[in-house]
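Section 4.2 – Deliverable D4.2 (structural model, holo form)

The reporting period included a commitment to supply a predicted holo structure for the target in complex with FE2/S2 (inorganic) cluster. Inputs used:
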Amino acid sequence: MAIKPPEGRPTPSVQDIYAQDSRPAPDVLRFESPPAGLGTEDISVERYFDQGWHNLEMDRVWRKCWQMACRVEELQKPGDHVVYNIGDESLLVTRTSKGEIRAFVNACLHRGVLLRTTGGCVERFKCPFHGFTWSLEGKLAHIPSQWDFDHVNREEFSLPEVKVGQWGGFVFVNFDPNCEPLDSYLEILPKHFEQFKLEDRYKAAHVCKVVPCNWKLAQEAFIESFHIPVAHPQTTTYVAWDTTQYDIFPGVRHVNRMLTVEAMPAPSAGEVETDKTIKHMQRDVAFHARAKIEHGSQADVRNQFADSARDKLSKSAKRDLRGMSNAEVVDVIQYSLFPNLVPWGGHGAPICYRFRPYENDPERAVMEIMLLFAKAEDGSHPPPAAPHWLTEEQSWSDAPELGSAGFVADQDTENLRRIQKGLRATHKPGITLANYQESRIRHFHQTLDRYMGVKP
Ligand code: FES
Ligand SMILES: [Fe+2]
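Output (structure tokens):
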């Protein structure tokens, strides 16, 4: 039996708007799966700062779950590699001479030095301390003073390796040799993204920053639209935040989504003149700044923003994207993949977030914002963006490649610091969540609890 959307959610619904669009959304977006039976319990606060909880997360989540290590286009030719760090773990994810992608533990088998501290392209992995060297296949290639290492069996002195998988142009790694296959771990994600084809994109921007909060808090601030009217009040004339559709799919553990309509005011903002919607959207969203919009109804305005976005995207990608729906070129189509990847489906806001602990500090996280642009028709694309690390003092706006996504993230960052401190100060043992608008957060914690072996 279909579950009804929540009573009280403002109208028109995302589905009503999609149905009226000049180019209606694809089938994968044309249904709702509202949360049901998730419960209403508070979520304990210790998990956001307790070192013991963090250490257990390292063992039970990060060493057990598939996690995105890099994009495939970063590993184009043999020797291209990326260093992926999580907690104490460090991996070399590399393209071998035979063209495979493999992931080796990034530590010298002599006296333990990290073989690489940054990505790049090498012929072999040579330790900077005494020069022990491994091939791109992880086989021992050179021992300095061989006469002094009679006791080392060259055949057995290979770099240890972890599992690797690929989906959507992402490379995933898993530290657990007995883990669930990536295909089943991804659940409904590949089917849903058949429409969005992230494998046909390339990483056009990649900005990283250490943020002053637990990695889960950072992620939670970006997977609900409930905070928009207070944290980003400038957007309510063109982001229909309060009609956002939240989907928790029955029996699905690792994936959920939200759909937020843009180029349309929030119903709770009252009567908004189309003039304002146009002006504010163009003021704030650089991508739409030059769109030529004639006045008309709110629906006309949305259709025109979509037309202009389709033209602009087709030109910049050198491929015909004019068949794309309004939703795909204007709206937020945001999925989560447990534990920490947040890929967006559309081309108008082609964002992908990743969140993870910063080293072993439960009160700091690495947050990354990537932009995934469409490749040209023939698959060609500019070189993928190298990670651009901001200092903790810098703001996201210091990374101009992010466009307006940077400004919005800056508005969230101050809140992150305050949540972290507030959760230490509070005398309440748990946080209380909205049943619908924060259902993705609850769903995340239920899956987290299962991995942690905690009773939800
Ligand atoms: S520690 Fe790597 S060669 Fe000595
Ligand atoms: Fe925000």
